[in-house]
Structure prediction request, 200 residues.
Amino acid sequence: MTVPRQPSSPDQPGAPEPPERGKGKPEDRRHMLRRRWLTATIIVLLIGIPAGYLVISANQSRNSGRDKENKYSATGLTEGWPSKVQRRLYEVPIPPYSKEVAYYETNNWRTSRLYVQFLTSNKGLDKFLKRIGATGGDLKPKDLTISKRDRGVVGWEFTGKGPWSGLTHEQKNPKPTQDVVVDRADPGHPMVYVVSSTTP
Prediction:
């Protein structure tokens, strides 16, 4: 009986070396440098561009916030919406999606006032007027119903080209009375100014 011949062990002297996988022509220096440069460039782009964008975005956001803060701090107004309690107490129903909203509240033993400004649409203005018990027809052209004293409190000047209109919605105490002035410099987006005062 003949025993089949076993292949030589790789460790055995004189055995042929198995071919190395994936080993081809050695990489020349020029190709290696180009590959490293390309890899470094890709890494810089992947990391640098997002990081740069974040830095620019953060600076713009910070600068924008400072501009708004300076703009409103000069007038005493606080950027943002009054609380729901304030809006309900003073009956100032700011329409949804309004922009450039700012407010200021004063209180003393005799009268409390809420000063509010907001930019809205014509539909938003109609909804606001309806909810305080008025209509667009109640707005009188060139009638700046907010007093000079109240304008001075928050720095409203009402000197733009307009057209301007206003109304006073009076109610019996303790319900508030609202003085409303509307600037239609942008016909599609009126700027609304409100002073709502209540006497306890």
